[in-house]
Amino acid sequence: MTKEAKHLGKILLYIHGDESSMIAAKCAIAVAKKYDCLLTAISVVNESLLTELLSAKILVPVEKMDFERALEEDGRRYLDYVVKLGEQKGLAVETKLCKGIVHSIVADEVALGGYDLLIQGELGEVLSLRDAFHQEGERILRSVGCPVLIVRGKERVDRMFDEA
């Protein structure tokens, strides 16, 4: 580990499958490579969303099971992609696929795993207070007990990744 990174040993990357997550993944890999950090990527199947959709009768129980399975497959696919990005740069990436209340799972993982930094994609536009309450990225930001890096700027991140 480099001298300037002596306090940065473990990074957790939160992946939720949109483009901002993939930009964050490239940034996390570049940072982990530069500072010789352990990198873990986590994706969480949002069970509270599934429950809300079932309660609102948007989904019936069979559809909920199918949708949950699809979300798990998506999570695995996103995590596998991050592993492949890491391999391109000679960096091993550990992955975790979990189920539950997203911000709680991520906050618990940060605490239990002893992570020094959480990296996540850019937060979505908040149009109302209700949006802010339901946006998991915002809730994660407010609930974790470590520094959080919100990644934006695709072109810069692409350059960082290319140079890693």
Question: Could you describe the 3D structure shown?
Answer:
The chain is of the alpha/beta class and 164 residues long. 54% of the residues lie in helices and 19% in strands. A 5-stranded parallel beta sheet has the order 3-2-1-4-5, sandwiched between helices. Helix 1 (19-34) packs parallel to helix 3 (61-88), helix 1 packs parallel to helix 7 (154-163) and helix 2 runs antiparallel to helix 3 (61-88). The longest helix has 28 residues, at 61-88.
Q: Summarize this, please?
A:
The protein has 164 residues and is α/β, with parallel strands linked by helices. 54% of the residues lie in helices and 19% in strands. It has one domain: 3-Layer(aba) Sandwich (Rossmann fold), CATH 3.40.50.620.
Oligomer: single chain
As a percent range, the share of helical residues equals: 40-55%
- Beta percentage is 15-25%
Total domains, how many?
1
CATH topology: Rossmann fold
Largest sheet at a glance?
Answer: 5 strands, parallel
Query: How many extended strands?
Result: 5
Contiguous runs where pLDDT drops below 50 for at least 5 residues: none
CATH superfamily: HUPs
SS summary, helix count? 7
Distance between the amino and carboxyl termini: 15 Å
Structural class: alpha/beta
